[in-house]
């Protein structure tokens, strides 16, 4: 279900004292399942439970009232809400419905980042004082156009993706208190996380959607990032494969902002899966097993999207994501053209990875493989090792990046995926190149740092990736 953006607005026909009288009830309002305008009949708008927070929203109106929030659910609950009790529909109010905010704990502004794109055509007419204002004064005819345009868009997109998508909504990041311990450790402090939230709030050139889609009877979460404000009719595609296992290493606000946004800002559509097992713990995450189909299904979804150029596909993978990317290419069997591959801190030989770092890797594989870890470890590890089938990459340019190497006589090592995993793969690719088997170029860049995530070199890493992808775009 595609959300319709929500703005609660007081029509200019109401006198100031009347607006002040009802403003408090407006601020207490969640999202109504019915859209009403003065003198018009109601129109149903489906939505999940939501919450909005009016944030410094009354400034332009001069009505400096305290900002409050409250959540409302289905219509049966809403009938008893302060919305219907305190806001007579005979008054000149305009309500535009939305399901943009799905998590009751996360709404932080009246207008989501989508609002400017929806209302851009009216900005030059100065009908809206500011996107950040709560009290707006739209003409009713404009409201009709906005609602109708969004209804048409929702209907068309739902038809297109109905066979695959369970839901598609604006991505609303978690609040700091909702992060798990690992995420809090990665972001370092609540103050730093607020900076991420502020960057995301001010994002104008990328549309970020969180989706659920169907694969093998499972519901899988994923992300779609699309460039905005561009003349391009179609965008090259980056399939991003995350690292981690189950909900460890899952895509979150930091992942989106540090590892994905820059690709969309440079003209790429970005699709990424959380993989099955990250939501429902009863479903196995086989660490490069059946959940490879989650990547394949995303590519099938991309084929249904008019804005994606399916002749221009790139794979970018981090850590365990390298296994997913290689297995995805293997399963595709050349059905789709992969222009280039970028692997950051990736594994190339699972058996030697377990031997070199058993403390971290062995428990992951025991959970992923179950009894197969004991009975068929060699076979299962080889399935997940590009070193066993390097020929599938012979026609695909590859950029390998890893923490490690030396600086000022000091040796550095990746503590999670040993640097040797990329070094050995680079040597194997060089051998194949010299023998004439490998046709495409490859490159290995080592960054002298004891780390797995290359935060210290983040800007340089992005620059190298964009430069590499541009050669084949």
What features would you describe in this structure?
- The protein has 473 residues and is of the alpha/beta class.
- It has 16 helices and 14 strands.
- The strands form 3 sheets. Strands 5, 6, 7, 8, 9, 10, 11, 12, 13 and 14 form a 10-stranded mixed sheet that branches. Strands 1-4 form a two-stranded antiparallel sheet.
- Helix 8 links the parallel strand 8 and strand 9.
Strand and helix order: EHEEHHEHHEHHEEEHEHEHEHHHHEEHEH
Overall, the morphology is globular
Q: Bin the helical content.
A: 25-40%
Report how far apart the termini are: 32 Å
Most strands sheet: 10 strands, mixed
Output the number of helix runs: 16
Helix-strand category: alpha/beta
Low-confidence stretches: 1-147
What radius of gyration results from the CA coordinates? 25 Å
Mean pLDDT: 74
Strand content: 15-25%
**How many strand units?**
14
